[in-house]
Design brief:
heterodimer; A: 3 helical TM bundles of succinate and fumarate reductases; disordered N terminus; B: alpha+beta; Ubiquitin-like (UB roll); Fumarate Reductase Iron-sulfur Protein, Chain B, domain 2; 5-stranded mixed sheet; about 35% helix; elongated
Chain lengths: ~230, ~270
């Protein structure tokens, strides 16, 4: 049923259920968070020395070898992550557009009383994190924009990048944004998947804050150690 | 004491103790033209007046001047009908968590400047000035916010036992008056809290069970069709809700919807 009102354009109808999109967002987000946990723990291997770190990187590429072809596990992980990123991005853009259509005329005065800084930065923060991920892969995975070039070992690329204050600053800013993204994202996913209630609300939010802080601290300790000469 | 009170009543200088306010009000002749903020002054406003009574004073003034009075919605003025609703200084229903009619001028100070705007959401088009068309909510209710029961004499109250905790939670959700403050306050102009309150209210009671799955898929389909935004769980809605409907209801709606889709329920087109 389309009800038209004088002077009102018939609204563009969302083709997919908005809550299904949110569920896609939540599930793809959880997949990426699980990867981030593994990534953070893997990064901490930098403290066990160059040899061990490079060996770990090599191990990821040779899991199941020689029974399985080179990089089997890694390719599967990359494919899953790529699907998750695309699904997350699609859902976000689609809901963003729906929200923009829902309020074409903004308030002259609008005061936010409940929203956290984290929830306000979800959209632009997410875009910045995405750009960071692209740069991050070009820098440390592929080495094409790495100061040490692409024929260096993972350990050397890491040290070379974090010896540059600009790269380090970009890394720190992006990770803090990612932490805030997760702080609201974990709470929001719990709501979206229907797992929250009044009793759990405080626990979920406390967990979201604690988890994001620990995860991001685990990532940031690496550039900090390069900066202070703990890792070189 | 009595003497001093009498003297104050008799003294014209003391009578002028009301507030003087500057109002910036959204004026829009009809849905087809662009509106704008217009500045008005009101004087000698009693702190005991409700916000709507203050607007009544302004309108009397405008009528006397031969101007067009400001159109705004109101009905019971007791905070129970959900008809009134204004964006006051950027907050739905103003600085107190109540309805606009139950907001009193004591919440403001002499000399304040107050911005008054209508709810802004494309499913709530402005009819005139501060009055918006909220029939989109009625259509969401029509899509599933009901239970189908044979009418007749009132059934025996003990025939269908309801656990006390469920009855309380259902009643908390049922206090929603459909004023639209949730949509107005939401950064996404989402009506999620409204729909969630209805789904929770009926979904917690035994009478709501037969249509539970169809209800949630149809109400959400209608909500999307009306052009409301999606929920990002920010919580502005619940903070603005005059009845304090909690975010828990949104989680319950999501749970019901995903469950209903898994069970094969699909919205009527």
């Amino acid at each position: 049923m389309t009800v038209t009102h004088a002077g009102r354009r018939t609204p563009k109808v969302a083709k997919t259920n908005s809550i299904v999109k949110k569920a896609v967002m939540a599930v793809s987000g959880i997949v990426m968070v699980l990867y981030l946990i593994a990534h953070m723990i893997g990064n901490l291997k930098v403290f066990t020395g160059r040899e061990s770190f490079n060996h770990y990187s090599e191990w990821i590429r040779t899991i199941g070898s020689p029974a399985l072809p080179h990089q089997t596990a890694l390719t599967i992980i990359r494919a899953i992550l790529l699907i998750a990123v695309i699904a997350h991005f699609w859902a976000a853009v689609s809901l963003w557009r729906q929200a923009k259509r829902a309020r074409p005329e903004r308030y002259v005065t609008k005061k936010a009383v409940a929203q956290s800084y984290a929830s306000r930065t979800m959209r632009w923060g997410g875009v910045i994190v995405l750009l960071f991920i692209v740069y991050h892969i070009l820098d440390l995975t592929m080495g094409v924009v790495n100061p040490d070039g692409n024929d260096s070992t993972p350990y050397d690329r890491l040290v070379a990048s974090f010896s540059n204050p600009f790269i380090t600053a970009f890394y720190v800013i992006s990770l803090v944004l990612l932490g805030m993204h997760l702080r609201h994202g974990i709470w929001s996913a719990t709501q979206t998947l229907g797992q929250s209630n009044r009793r759990r609300e405080r626990t979920v939010n406390a967990f979201a804050i604690a988890f994001s802080t620990i995860l991001i601290a685990g990532f940031l300790i690496v550039p900090f150690s390069v900066l202070t000469g703990l890792v070189d | 004491m009595t003497a001093s009170m009498q003297s104050s009543v008799g003294n014209p200088a003391d009578e002028k103790r009301g507030m003087n306010l500057t109002l910036r009000i959204w004026r829009q002749k009809d849905p087809s033209v662009k509106g704008k903020m217009v500045t008005y002054k009101v004087t000698d406003i009693s702190p005991d007046m409700s916000f709507l009574e203050m607007l009544d004073v302004l309108n009397e003034q405008l009528i006397l001047q031969g101007d067009d009075p400001v159109a705004f919605d109101h009905d019971c003025r007791e905070g129970i009908c959900g008809m009134c609703g204004l964006m006051i200084n950027g907050q739905a229903h103003g600085p107190q968590q109540t309805t606009t009619c139950q907001l009193h001028m004591r919440s403001f100070s002499d000399g304040d400047s107050i911005d008054i705007e209508p709810w802004r959401a494309s499913p709530f088009p402005v009819i005139k000035d501060l009055a918006v068309d909220r029939r989109a909510f009625d259509r969401i209710i029509q899509a599933g916010g009901y239970i189908s029961v044979p009418t007749g004499t009132a059934p025996e109250a003990h025939a269908t036992p309801v656990p006390k905790a469920d009855a309380d939670a259902a009643f908390d959700a049922a206090t929603c008056i459909g004023c639209g403050a949730c949509v107005a306050a939401c950064p996404n102009a989402s009506s999620m809290l409204f729909t969630a309150a209805k789904v929770t209210h009926l979904g917690l009671l035994p009478q709501g069970q037969p249509e539970r799955n169809d209800r949630v898929v149809n109400m959400i389909a209608q909500q999307d069709r009306e052009g409301f935004g999606g929920c990002t769980n920010i919580g502005e809605c619940s903070a603005a809700c005059p009845k304090g409907i909690s975010m828990e209801t949104i989680s319950r709606l999501n749970h019901d919807l995903l469950g209903a889709l898994r069970a094969g329920a699909r919205p009527k087109s």
